[in-house]
Amino acid sequence: MDELLNLNSWSYKLLKILATSNIFRYSKNIRQLSKGERLKQACVLLGPVFIKFAQALSTRHDMLDANIIIELKKLQDQVPMFSSKKAIKIIEQELKQPLANIFRYFDTKAIAAASIAQVHIAYLHNNYDKVAVKVLRENIETIVKQDIFLLKILAIILQIIFYISRIKHINPINIIKQLHKSLLAELDLTREAANAHQFKINARNYKIPKIYKKYTSKKVLVIEYISSQTLSQINFNKFSNYQRNILAKNLLQIFFTQVFYDNFFHGDLHPGNIFIQDDLTFVFIDFGIVGYLNDIDLLYIAENILAFSERDYDKVALLHQKAGWLNNNITLKEFSVAIRIIGDELLDKNLQEIAISEFLGQLIILAKKFKINLQPQLLLLQKNLLYIESLSRTLDGNINIYKTITPIIKNWLAQT
Fold first, then answer.
1. 148-162, 183-197, 392-406: which has the minimum mean pLDDT?
2. What is the full DSSP assignment across 195-246?
3. Which of 100, 116, 104, 110 is nearest to 133 (CA)?
4. Which of 165, 208, 210, 374 could form a disulfide with 200 if both were Cys (CB 3.0 to 4.6 A apart)?
């Protein structure tokens, strides 16, 4: 019974899910909400790991309806904050000294909160540097461990249901494994600091904030405060058409250079993680999630993009087969015809309207029909392509994405 009443125990969370489902079913106010809104509110109630799980599901267009995905995406920046007293306690324990010895000033009101951490503004004693202090939520490791255990049980149940229903292309157990792997990386802020250092080495035409290693630990990260506005805050009308075109091109070139030349790309490029300085330089933050692909997958993606642009659908199908993504019961011709249907529809648009992320997204949707085993790295890439292409078109509605990124891919293939 003591274990059952433990607020952080997996058994309590299971009861909480049951209670939540009951409330969400019978409450009059809740019944008026859409399925997506009810699911979003349930995840907020259940806590950080379920918020993270919802964020992961928000990229799964092959599994969920669009209206549900729209609601789950809101959990990227609409997460409740935790007590500043808890944040201060964690900082002092991690850095092994009183807060006053570290910071000349510490703002107790957080400026941002995510599923596993929140951020405060502070000033260091040394040169009065203004910094952003990222603090993990209290007992987050224990909560993650217990909640992942519960999610694994639910995944096993779903896996059995899918097997009985002969739905074999969606693997809930693998999805939970990927979520667990992602969370473990984000629970160690020294790893995020190391990722930031690697991006700083790779950076050509963008900037990475300074990391204060002296004040960084597993649960606390202190970085240079960026006073510029993020892409989610800025009014793009302040820029001239020429500036907006340059910004759009630079953003695309930065991302595709990270993917192909650096093989180390930012894994969470939503607008709140990208700043624009007065000299039009981009600054990136939040390096907990990064992506990288093996040589075979990189070659596969590059050749697929070029073959698609040339309407060579037979080659796209053949590339899928060579990559081992097609089951033996699927013929090349059958898959080629299916790709032709979506390809012709996309390519018949104006060049300015064609999106690579839409092509990858359609391939993911085809996975449901053809029972293709989806690769996690493709999903992460597609999620961030959606961000980048959307932001680029917001900056410049006439940007030709293919024309901008094709030279990067062709040059990379020539050097491979």
1. 148-162
2. HHHHHHHH-SSEE-PPB-GGG--SSEEEEE---SEETTT--GGGS-HHHHHH
3. 110
4. 208
pLDDT digits (tens, 9 = 90+) for 24-54: 554 556 667 777 888 888 888 777 777 776 7
Give the pLDDT confidence score for residue 149 in this predicted structure: 84
DSSP state for residue 137 in the 8-state scheme? P
CA angle 295, 300, 306 (to 5 degrees): 130
What CA–CA distance (Å, rounded) separates 254 from 414? 19
DSSP state of 351: G
Q: Which two tokens stand for residue 306?
A: 């070029």
- Burial group, residue 3, by CB count within 10 angstroms (0-12, 13-18, 19+): exposed
C-alpha closest to that of 206 among 262, 273, 265, 276:
276
**C-alpha–C-alpha distance, residues 181 and 3, integer Å:** 27
Question: Count of CB atoms within 10 A of residue 342's CB?
Answer: 18
| DSSP 3-state of 278 | coil
Per-residue pLDDT band at 210 (split at 50, 70, 90): very high
What letter represents residue 241's amino acid?
N
CA 43 to chain centre: 17
Token pair listed for 27:
């409450």
What pTM value is reported for the model?
0.77
- Cα gap 372→149, rounded to integer Å: 27
> Catalytic amino acids?
268
DSSP-based three-state secondary structure for 267? coil
Please tell me the number of Cα atoms within 13 Å of 18 on its side-chain side: 6
Place of tokens 């002969």: 166
Between CA 314 and CA 322 the distance in angstroms is 12
Enter the DSSP assignment of 260. Answer: I
Residues 6+ apart with CB under 8 A from 126: none
- CA-wise closest residue to 368 among 119, 167, 206: 167
Measured CA to CA, the distance from residue 369 to residue 178 in angstroms comes to: 23
Pick from 210, 219, 215: nearest CA to 191: 219
Question: Residue 132 — very low, low, confident or very high, per pLDDT cuts 50/70/90?
Answer: very high
Count how many residues are written for the chain: 416
329-388 pLDDT per residue, tens: 778 888 888 888 877 777 766 556 666 777 777 766 776 677 666 566 677 787 788 788
**Any idea which residue has 């984000």 for tokens?**
186
pLDDT at residue 10 in the model:
47
